[in-house]
Amino acid sequence: MYFHKLALNWHSNSFTLKYLFYILISIVLFSNTLFAQDKNVLEDLDYNKEYTFGFNWNTNGDILGGVSFKYSKFRKGTRFSTYCLEIVSVKHPNEIRPSHDSTINQFVYGKQNYLFVIRPQYGREIVLFRKENEGVQMNFIFAGGPSFGIEKPYYIFYGNSASTYQSVPFDPNKTTAFTKTYGSGSYFDGFTESKIVMGINAKASFLFEFGTFRNNLTGLELGFLGEAFSRKIVIMPSESNRSVYFSAFMNIYFGARE
Questions:
Q1: Helical (H) or strand (E) element with 150
Q2: Residue 94 per-residue DSSP state
Q3: Burial of 241 by CB count in 10 Å (0-12 exposed, 13-18 middle, 19+ buried)?
Q4: Which helix (H) or strand (E) holds 200?
Q5: In sequence order, which residues have a C-beta less than 8 Å from that of residue 230 and are 6 or more positions away?
Q6: Which residues are paired to 138 by β-bridges?
Q7: In a domain, 3, yes or no
Q8: Do the domain assignments include residue 5?
Q9: What is the mean pLDDT of residues 102-107?
Q10: Spatial contact of 202 and 225, defined as CB atoms under 8 Å apart
Q11: CATH code at position 93
Q12: Cβ atoms of residues 124 and 79 within 8 Å
């Protein structure tokens, strides 16, 4: 083996998925009650468009998973058409970040590629509950679309000493010596060598919006997303690479209404 077998870190992700699942089930059980509390307000929405920008956290991502942009347009009743663009990074569960004794530059040992995903999505957004005088609103969103996976080589500083190393892409057949790895290379190295992998995605979520003023809002979106690519994505040279991904996610939104 070119590197020690790493233990899977699914426990924390499974716990997060389970916890979020219970939250969403609770919301579904009480949504009819919430809807009945303010039915008259729902019949007279006072905006036609909504623009939001948000930050994403998900169970397949890093500390910050990515960013998202959403535009919603009124259709009829309490329904909106929603157009969303997400740009996220996806990690492999085996990723760890050691550092070399002679440098403080950390790197992911054995990582072969980054995976970035661009997700244009189209769907429906339904207002379930709205309390206008308090600026509180709950929506249900279902959306999907194509996925553009960007498989970018992961560069490392590799060489016989700290004074002679070079920035090279990790190669499971050549650059496997831990003692010769002095850190991760430039984040921007390798973009011209990236490969595009096509896929599809779909999500279902609940969005809680809080209007600080009449036309401004902040929101919290909680949901699940499934994604399938045309082939396995090689993030780590491992048998656990896959083509289908599932994740729980949270988005924090900021935006405006018209």
A1: strand 136-153
A2: T
A3: middle
A4: strand 195-210
A5: 197, 198, 199, 243
A6: 129, 208
A7: no
A8: no
A9: 68
A10: yes
A11: 2.40.160
A12: yes
pLDDT digits (tens, 9 = 90+) for 122-147: 999 998 887 766 678 889 999 999 99
pTM of the predicted model, to two decimals?
A: 0.80
Tokens representing 94 are 């085996």
Domain assignment of residue 2, yes or no: no
Read off the tokens for 87.
Answer: 């740009």
Mean pLDDT computed over every residue of the chain: 80
Q: What is the pLDDT of residues 142-199, one digit of tens each?
A: 999 999 999 999 998 888 887 788 889 988 888 878 878 888 888 888 889 999 999 9
Q: What is the largest CA-CA distance in the chain?
A: 73
Phi-psi sector, 201: left (phi>0), alpha (psi -120 to 50), beta: beta
Q: Which of these, 140, 64, 113, lies nearest to 236 by C-alpha position?
A: 113
Position 249 pLDDT exceeds 90: yes
Range(s) of the domain holding residue 16 = 10-257
24-28, 217-221, 234-238 — which is least confidently predicted? 24-28
Q: Give how many domains the chain has, as a whole number.
A: 1
Q: Which two tokens stand for residue 189?
A: 């190295």
**Would you say residue 145 lies in a domain?**
yes
